[in-house]
Amino acid sequence: MQISIKELSALVNGEIVGNPDGIIKAPGRIEDASQGEITFLANLKYEKYIYDTQATAVLVSKDFLPKKEVKTTLIKVENVYATITFLLNHFGGKVEGSNEHSKHSFIDESADLGNNVSIGHFSVIEKDSSVDENTIIFPQVYIGENVKIGKNCILYSGVKVGKDCVIGDNCIIHPNTVIGADGFGFLPKEDGSYEKIAQTGNVILEDNVEIGANSTIDRATMGSTIIKQGTKIDNLVMIAHNVEIGEHTVIAAQAGFAGSSKIGNNCMIGGQAGFVGHIQVANGTKVQAQSGVNKNIPNENTAWYGSPILPYNDYLRSYAAFRKLPQLLKKINDLEKKLKDLE
Prior knowledge:
There is one protein chain. This protein is an alpha/beta fold. 15% of the residues lie in helices and 28% in strands.
């Protein structure tokens, strides 16, 4: 990346305040950016850094008015987050494949590979599987029997995709994620032992799904575990058998979903949130980090917090009271002592 401020501003339809001739070579954080870097100010709690930053340019919103002199060049744009996202993707976000199959990979002769598929060292593609055009398979990926992978996908090193699973177009799966392990299904027996229940289904990832590193999505007992289009899942997320995650839902790290739970479209799930099995969560639901969802959420566009969950504002009021319990207990003890003295 090497571009003048003037060229970059034209690329994002920005307005320059300062020197248009500076050269940008890389992005940087506003706290510690240096000469040749571009940074951004979208959250005003970081405003203090803009007055001392060594960055060559800073992206700011069109309505930003500095409180004192700014030494760097400002590029004013309509939406700072959207602009920096565009620039990061434009200059460094594209993953390039080799369009070659490593001689150290194993590809079953029955596998069907599209044009421009890249396959890295020591990857395995088993029989009757297919990988569509422009997909990149990094080293040490395992693709089981009868797997279908769409166009323009990226499977990073260490990904495992079990038999019969289906991955749509434009999906990204980060390192060491497992798609299609057995669901946690066991039948208790009279002698206290457990008999394994065969997990005969699969996992379906629809188009434009992204799965973070070290996540696990179990195959269904029967039918399919489904992650619907546009959903984004962070690292270390556990999704059990027969779960359905709706469209364009985002799930932060370490969240877990027990079997047959159904999550709606456009939901936002915080980190370490847990969902019991066999519940339904409505579209647009927001669940705060570390919450425990133990019941259906039937109404759309509601927010929840706590374990077990309460409506978001109810939880905040309850927590405010909970924090005062030590003082309240002391007052009660003092009052009881005074009453006893009066007796």
